[in-house]
Amino acid sequence: MTFLLDRGEDPWVIYWQGDFYYCHEHNDSTILVNRSGTLQGIKDNPVIVWMNGDAARELWAPELHRIDGRWYIYYAEGPGADHRMHVLQGQGPDPQGAYRYRGRMNTGDSFAIDGTPFEWRGRWYFVWSGSEKGHATQKLFIDRMETPWLLAGNPVCISAPMFDWEKHGMPAWPDINEAPQALRHPTAERMFIVYSASHSVTDDYCLGRLDLTGPDPMDPGAWRKNPYPVFSKYVDDRIYGPGHASFVDTPDGRSWIIYHCSPISGGGWDSRQLRAQPFYWRTDGTPDFGHPGQSRPQITPDAAPDGPGAPKAADPGGQGSGTEPAEVH
After folding, report:
1. Contact present, 287 and 183 (Cβ < 8 Å)
2. pLDDT one-digit tens code per residue, 185-201
3. DSSP 305
4. The whole model's pTM is what?
5. Tens of pLDDT, residues 270-328
6. Distance in Å from the first CA to the final CA of the chain
7. What number of other Cβ atoms are within 10 A of residue 3's Cβ?
8. What is the largest CA-CA distance in the chain?
9. Cα angle value 80/82/88 (rounded, 5°)
10. What are the start-end ranges of the H helices in the chain?
């Protein structure tokens, strides 16, 4: 396990053309992109790429993606129950360069956060966490992308809290599925959505997994939910509320899960740290994250390559390989 930052939340890290980029917010009002030649150095070289100037609007969980040769940053902005998804478009080839506001994503007129795009079989999709009007339960929705800033307008729900481990919440927000991330098997035709469940302020915040079992991601019946969390608190190592993960490959051929957690039971949001550890693929094609802080034979993120046979994480949007992803269709 690697400690990345003593303070942080909602990590989004990608690898592109020899560098790691860490996209994050500060003070609920500013988006920064850090650049480093190593995973352990992602705290270095921050550049402010966007400011809304108003912390009361609660800018949350920005993600940096490359689609059709351009950079985009997706983020949620509020305040409170009025959070909606928004997108910035890069104005040049540098992920730390200038961005312009492209608009609000048309996810509907209700709470929407943690939106993320992914490509599957030549088409692009957008998944987010949202609540239906007048309801507090957060579910996962998906829609096809017409462009990087426009959805088809026919969203469907692919996951709602149904197990007890998805329902450790607060009185106002009892049942939560949020922070979806696409994870693709490196060789087999397997696609997964790894998401966070329960309220992020609790010790029981954890990761769940949806498996795509059919050809169409827009078919709710094609997604099968794992009945148990795939990554959850590990009291022996004092790791509580691990969640809101992203995935990245390092030049040594390893696949890493990056997540936030608290080292204190009941620590809530104020004690969250960023950590990373390698994960592996089972013979059945599913990801094995182990438990948070698990001691496994591993090398540091900066070690020499293991060779072409080493397992790799999926690269939603083509970020991990440094190659251009397919166009949005």
Report:
1. yes
2. 988 889 999 999 999 99
3. P
4. 0.88
5. 899 999 999 999 999 999 999 999 855 433 343 323 333 333 333 333 333 333 333 33
6. 39
7. 11
8. 53
9. 105
10. none
